[in-house]
Amino acid sequence: MATSESEVLEETYDLSRSPVFTDSDMEKLRTKDKKEGVPLQTPWTFWIDKASNASSAAQYQANLKKIYSVSTVQDFWAVLKHIPSVEALPPRYSYHLMRDLIQPMWEDEMNKYGGTWRLKVAKKDTPTVWQELLLAAIGEQLSEGLSEGDSICGVTVAVREKDDLVQVWNVSAKLANNEKMVPVIHSLVPNVEFQVVYYKPHQTHAAYGSR
């Protein structure tokens, strides 16, 4: 049986080789930039993981890798430009950008009562959708689609064999408002037609509470 390109890529891609930025690394990049940092409203953290059959939160957490936390626009771009692009990730890998140090896990205290807007995206559109949602997250534009009292936790892109999955995380599933959020997302990428758009509370996942 012939080996597919995605299988070869996954075999050669090692999560342990994914870039993890140190303060020293970032200082070198800042020195190259020579621009004063424009502060973000809150810090944001880049994460990467590979989907697995983890049966516990601890196992899932062990498979999650923190890349770096950024607190300025310049640091955000420095990290984004120096990690593999989303097109370079093999299937089953995910990038996450989460507010502060929130982990992209249902069990995180900020996530356990929340959920995600889930967008099925054609691969040709994934880079555009991912970058626009990243910028909307750090620029707080996604907050325009929230009900009062709700908050954005982060955004995720999950690379799949066919269409990819992009997610927007929020704090409160009870406050999730599709009529507000979906138009905001469409306004960010008006030329993209999503395959599927829906909201899913974390607690409705079959595995919620069992890992």
Overall description:
- This is EIF-4F 25 kDa subunit.
- GO terms for molecular function: RNA 7-methylguanosine cap binding; translation initiation factor activity.
- Belongs to the eukaryotic initiation factor 4E family.
- By secondary structure, this protein is an alpha+beta fold.
- The chain contains 6 helices and 7 strands.
- The protein has helices at 5-12, 23-33, 57-62, 73-81, 126-138, 178-188; strands spanning 39-50, 64-72, 93-99, 115-121, 152-158, 164-170, 196-201.
- It has a 7-stranded antiparallel sheet with strand order 2-1-3-5-6-4-7.
- It starts with a helix and ends in a 10-residue tail after the last strand.
User: Into which percentage range does the β-strand content fall?
Assistant: 25-35%
Weakly predicted, low-confidence segments: 1-12
> Gap between N and C termini, in Å?
36 Å
Name the average pLDDT: 88
What is the level 1 CATH name?
Alpha Beta
Q: The CATH topology, please?
A: RNA Cap, Translation Initiation Factor Eif4e
